[in-house]
Amino acid sequence: MRIIFAGTPDTSVPSLERLNEDHEVLAVLTRAPAPVGRKRVLTKSAVHDRAEELGLSVLTPATLKDAQVQAQIAELDPQAVAVVAYGLLVPQELLDVPEHGWLNLHFSLLPRWRGAAPVQYAIAHGDRVTGTAVFQIEAGLDTGPVYDVREHAIADSDTAESLLAVLAESGARQLSEVFTALDSGVASASPQEGEATLAPRLTSKDARIDWSAPAEAVSARTRGWWPAPGAWSEMAGTRVKLGPAAVTDVEGLRPGQIGTDGLVGTGTTAVRLSRVGPAGKAWMEAADWIRGLHGESSFEVAR
């Protein structure tokens, strides 16, 4: 099948590679190079870099509402467009261009967790199962009919980073198989069923830890917000970044109280922090950081 691929971050790359193997990728749409890091170095997206390595034509429009951009895409005459974490809204004029429309690989079990951060929300809210869905893009936010859904269990040790990496690989195969079915005329989409939940873009404010919550909830949030925006707490008015935390059966620490060996009290049992990032310092092992504290210390209990 003749496909245009639209994606931006590294989680989009496996789908680009798989579709390039199994189908004909006419061109790649990705976000324009953007300033990265303290020195604000203009940097291409992960998809941009990989597309060039594969010898594919790359388009980086700032908007898809521009008439010239729309004409350029229409001239390529794609049968479909594959979307994986692209980042730009697609106007109806472009949705109508391909015979089979625009199909999105979404990292959730739609309609649960529609939006920009589905894996982060699934982990942070204690879901035990998530997955991937391939659906038809329409005017609403992730509301279109679904071609295929595949489940994946969430482990107690999963972070958003580790789980996204797994789903990106399995989802790439799934997306390619849907396009093969479309090309063979045997694919069909069904309306989404069930209660919809939203996973909007996260901010640092969302990631502050409430130590009065149960240990399972604290652990889930530190893992769901890892690596971005990153969980955090305050101690004596200073922000401390927190790495993923594991649930323990240790009792006796009040919420926010810092114990030995990386332990911190919650509303139930303690959690064990893996790493911390004190203000102005590099990441370090939580147990080492705690050993350097003087006297009894506690994180502020945020609500």
UniProtKB/TrEMBL annotation:
Formyl transferase N-terminal domain span: 1-178
Reactions accelerated catalytically: L-methionyl-tRNA(fMet) + (6R)-10-formyltetrahydrofolate = N-formyl-L-methionyl-tRNA(fMet) + (6S)-5,6,7,8-tetrahydrofolate + H(+)
One family name in Pfam for this protein: Formyl_trans_C
One Gene Ontology CC term in the entry: cytosol
Cross-referenced PANTHER family: METHIONYL-TRNA FORMYLTRANSFERASE (PTHR11138), METHIONYL-TRNA FORMYLTRANSFERASE, MITOCHONDRIAL (PTHR11138:SF5)
MF (Gene Ontology): methionyl-tRNA formyltransferase activity
EC number(s) stated in the UniProt entry for this protein: 2.1.2.9
The UniProt record lists the keyword Transferase: yes
Protein name: Methionyl-tRNA formyltransferase
HAMAP family assigned: Formyl_trans
Binding-site residues, (6S)-5,6,7,8-tetrahydrofolate: S108, L109, L110, P111
Family statement drawn from the similarity comment of this UniProt entry: Belongs to the Fmt family.
Domain (Formyl transferase C-terminal): residue spans on this chain: 202-293
Keyword terms: Protein biosynthesis, Transferase
Record keyword ATP-binding present: no
Originating organism: Trueperella bernardiae
Function in brief: Attaches a formyl group to the free amino group of methionyl-tRNA(fMet). The formyl group appears to play a dual role in the initiator identity of N-formylmethionyl-tRNA by promoting its recognition by IF2 and preventing the misappropriation of this tRNA by the elongation apparatus.
